[in-house]
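Could you help me review a protein record that somebody else here produced? This is what I was given.
***
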Amino acid sequence: MSEYTKFQMAARQRNTLNQVLVTSIGVFVLLVFLAPLGYMFTTAIKSDEQMGDASAPWYWPHSPKSVEFEGKDLEVFLVPTDDGTKEMAAFKKTRNETLFVAPENPGGEQFAWEGNWRTLERVYMSNPQWENFKTAWKELNFPRLFLNTLIIAGFGTIGAVLSGVFVAYGFSRFNFRGKNLLFMILIATIILPVQATLIPTYILFSRIGWTNTFLPLIVPHFFANAYNVFLLRQYFLQIPRELDEAAMMDGANPLRILTSVILPQSVPAITAVSLFHFFFAWNDFFSPLVYLASKPELYPLSVGLQKFNALYGRQPNMIQTGALITLVLPVVIFFLAQRVFMQGIVFTGVEK
């Protein structure tokens, strides 16, 4: 075997080892991030009895195994016998001696075991409680809350994207006096907390009769958000101005340039802004709680879920079930649009 062949084999082995190592690290990191979701899912399909049973398996929904005999449910235990440990159903329990029967034949021969039956290990069987989702769906009034949330998030996203596009287009393509100063003032509003403007805005919306309606949660987003404007402006600046000039030579006005030149090339950035705002509106809890306090029928999922959690505060399985139901749509939307979303984030130079 030549030295060159040996070198090639060693290089292939190193590449294979590197690939295995990188893949293993990637799988480990993936499992670490997915572990909370996995625990959330398994908890959601557990029974109330298992949540209060310290001896029950923790990794998957289980219920104590039992056998019905003469109108009674006989608990099944692991009982040590002369032939080894067997699954036996407790027919008659006493402190010092317990009568067991075979689970497959409860009416057959009985077996007397001396000792306290409480020291024996119970037998569990897999028993996912899928009806938890049905209960949470009904108690949450999920269709109504889902529709309310979709109205708030959907119309708010439309307003945020439209206003953000027009403002970002102005800052990226037009020169006017005070442009940089106005942009800096706009960006400075990012650090302004919502709590600082809550009272005056609430008073304003209250006086014009907008409280207990969707309007305070939708209309303000039609006046542009500094973060959205920044993302879109950064992307628009990367589009060559030569394309604008070519369109102007063909007689296109600024609005036509925006719709025919800028927007078709800005799909990744627009997708990123849309998802950012949609997820923000979907998860927003504080604003709906303030403006819809007297109208429970208008609550979005975030507020309705908080009420649901208060109702089932001692049942963690039901809390996780309600949270999983509300999580489905955002996760599906993100996975369907993740490629375009990541392109928008990379090209605008923003990581979040």
Summary: The chain is about 60% helix and 15% strand.
